[in-house]
What does this fold into?
Amino acid sequence: MQIYKAPIADIRFALESAGYSRVAAFEAFSDYDLDTLMGILDEAGKFCTKEMLALNRTGDQEGVKYDPVTLSVTMPKGFKELYTKFCEGEYASMVHPPEYGGHGAPFTLAFMLSELTTATNKSFSMCPGLTQGLVEALMHYGSDAQKAEYLPRLIRGAVTGTMCLTEPQCGTDLGILTTRATPVEGRAGVYSVTGTKIWITFGEHDLTDNIIHLVLARLPDAPEGIKGISTFLVPKLLADGTRNPVFCGGLEHKMGIHASPTCVINLEGAEGYLVGEPHQGMKVMFKMMNAARLTVGIEGIALSEISYQTALAFAKDRRQMRALDPAKQDLSAKADNILVHPDVRRMLLNVRASTEGMRALSAWIAVHIDVAHSHPDVKVREEAEELVALFTPVVKSYCTERGFWNVSEAMQACGGAGYTTDWSIEQYLRDMRIALIYEGTNHIQALDLIGRKLPSKGGRAMMAFSKRVTDFIRENRDDERMGSIVESVKEASKLLSDITMNTLMAKAARDPEEGGAVASSYLNLFALTAISYLLGQQAKLAHERGGRFGETKLKVIRFFFDKILPEIHSLAAVIRTGKASMMALAEDEI
Amino acid sequence: MKIIVTAKRVTDYDSKVIPTADGKAINFDNVDFKMNPFCEIAVEEAIRLVDAAGEGEVVVVAMGDEEATQEVRKALAMGAHRGVLVECDESKLDSDAVARMLVKLCQDERPDLLLLGKQAVDGDSNQVGQLVAEHLGWPQATFAYKLSVEGKGATVQREVDGGVETVRLSFPAVITTDLRLNEPRYPSLPNIMKAKKKPLETMSPEDLGVALGAPKVEVVSYGLPSSRKAGQVVDSVATLVSKLVNEAKAL
It folds into this structure.
C-alpha cells in the first residue's frame, strides 16, 4: 500500500508562518509569491505521487546491479525514464541562476520540493540532491571556465554529480585521507588523481552517460591533516569522450535505500582539475556538505509524513476492540474503529505533531537561507546566515532522529500489518535509518553545535535567536487566545539558557569530555525549544485563520505542547548528571 | 490551426464529497479541486495538434467563479496560448447554459475545432459537446480515443461498446475526448511561471450575449451510495460455490 498526497496546505501554512512574504518581497523573487510557489509545489507533488512513488517499492525490491566485468551499475527498471521526466519538468534547475540555464527561483522552493521528492522516492531523490550540492560548490569555488563548462550540464541534469570524501580508513576523520593528486607536467591546473573512495552515492549509474566526481585529495606538498586537503573535479568521461580511469569497484549491500547505488570508486591516475585554492578543500567540501546536511534533515520530515499518511489510512479502515467510552461504541459492527482508542491517537498524533513542528523549523530555515542570499541589507544577511549555520546541525540531527522514531511509531499504530511489506512502512524505516549516520553522524552534528556553532563570534547567533524568542514572548503574553502556549515557550527558553550557561558552558569549558557526554541531549533540547517557539507563532496564525483548518492546527499544536515539549525536562535532567556514569566504567568493564 | 478547449474545475476524485444535511447541496469544506481529467486530455491533445501543425493557437475556456482561473492557468502552463474565464454564478450553470456560452464563443473565435472532455467527473452529464455541435450545426465525434488531422478535417476513432467506430469529419467540428486518447503532460516548472504572463481574459455571460436564468435542470437531492455490506471469509471453494448459488443467486 503506497499512500501519499503532498501536504500542500500544511506546507503553505508553515511558510506563511515562517514569514515567506519577506522572500517574495525581494525584487529577484517578485514572480514567486506564495500562490505561485504553492502552485508549483502542487504540480510537483502530483508528479511525485504518480511517477516517483510508483517506482519506490519496485526500486527497493529490485535494487541496483553491479557488473564486475564492465564495472557498470544498472539502475532498477523505470529509473532512467523517471530521470528523463524529472529533468524535463526542470524540477532540479528552478533555483539556479538563469545565466547557467536555471530559473532563479527562491531556495525555499527547492527546500520544500525536496520534502516531496524524498517522501515519494528517497533513493531516487538522492541523485539530483547530490548534483545540487556540486552545483552549489562550483558556484562558489569554481573558476569561470569550470562554471561555464560544467554548470549548464549539471543544472539541466545532462550529467550528475557526486562527492567523494570517505576512504576505507577515514570516515568521520577526513584529516587522515590518502588519495593523491600529482600535477600533470605541462598542463596547468590538471592533476593525476589516485586513491580509493568508498560510500560514494550515485558514484556509478546508467541514468546519464557522464558523472562528475568532486574528489578530496592531497597535493604532493600538502601539510598533514585536514589543512592539506584539496578538491578536484574528476569526470567519468573526458571532454573528448574518452574514459577517465575512475571506476566503480563494487557496491555496498545495505539495510535500505536499495535503489541508490553506494559505490566503491577507484581512481587510477584519473585526470582531475583543481577547484578553488590548493589545500582549501575543506571549504569547498563544507559548502557542499552544509547544504546536504539540511536536506538530510528534511528526510526525517518527508518519511514521517508518508508514514503518517499510511498509518492513518490503515487506522481509518481497521476495527478492533470496543471503545473505552460506551457512548463511542458502534454497535452495528463487531468492533470499533481503532481511532476511538486513546493510544492509537497518541501514536498518530506523536508523529503528526512532531512532523508539523519539524516542518515549521525547515520552513523557517528555508526562508532564512533566502534572506541570507538576497536581502539588500548586509547586516540582515549576516544574521540570517549565522542562524542558518547555527541550526544546520540541529535540523540534520533532530529531524533524522525523530524522523526514524516517527516511522517506527507509525508502524506500531498499524500493528502486525505495519511490519509487513504490504504497507511499505518497513521500507521507509529501513530507508530512514541511514540519515542518522551519513553526512556527519548525529553526534558529530551535536559536537558541531556546541563546539563550533554556539561559540562562533562570541555566541552571536544564539543571542540573536534568543532575542527573537524573547520578543515573541513579550509580544504575545497578554494574548488570551494563546492560553498557556506563551508560558510554555518561556519555560522552555529559560531552561535552554539555564542549561547553556550553567551546565554546558560552565562544565564543558573546563572538561571537553563533559561536552562530548551531553552534546546529543543538548541538541535535542535546543531543537524542541526552537520548535516550541515556531509552533507558538503558528498558533497565532491559526487563531487568525480560524475555521476548521485553524482549529485543527491549534489542536495539533496543543498536543505538541502537552505531550512532546515536556521531553525537555528529562533531557535537562540527563544533561545535568553529565559524564560521570558514562565514564565510571573501566574499559574492560564495557 | 485554432482550437478552443475546455478546462472545467471539478472536485478532486481523491476527495470525499459529502452532501449537506438536507441533501440539497454538496458540502465543499475540505474538498480539493482540480481540472476535470477528461478536459486535461482535451488540453493535451489540443496542444499536440497545434504543435504538429506548426502554427495556430490553443484557447482554453473555463466557466465559473474566480477560482476557476487556476484551471485556466494550469492549461496555460501545459502549453495553451491564451485563456478565457467566463465568470459567473456556478449555481446557474447546467449543460444547456454552458453549451449556449460555448456556442457564442465559437461564433466569435471561429476555431477549426472545439475539443472537450466527453464528460466532467462531477456532474457526469455527457451533454455539452453534443449540444454545442447541434446548435452550431457542426459535425461531432464523441469518445475519441484516436485522432488524426488531415488537411481541413480529421479521422476519429471512437470507443463504442465492444469495439471501435471510425468516423471522418470536416472542420469546423466538435470532438470530445475519452480516457485513452493520450496521457496529459506535467507542466514543467518554468512553464508554470510563464503561464502567469500569458493573456487571460475574463468576461461575463452578458458579454457573450447569454442570459443565465434558472438552470433547466433542477437537482432534487444528493445522496451517498448505500454502504457496502461486509464481506465473508469462506473456508473452501465448495462453500463459496454454494453461497454464490444459494445465497447470492449469482450462478
Notes: The first helix of chain B runs from residue 37 to 53.
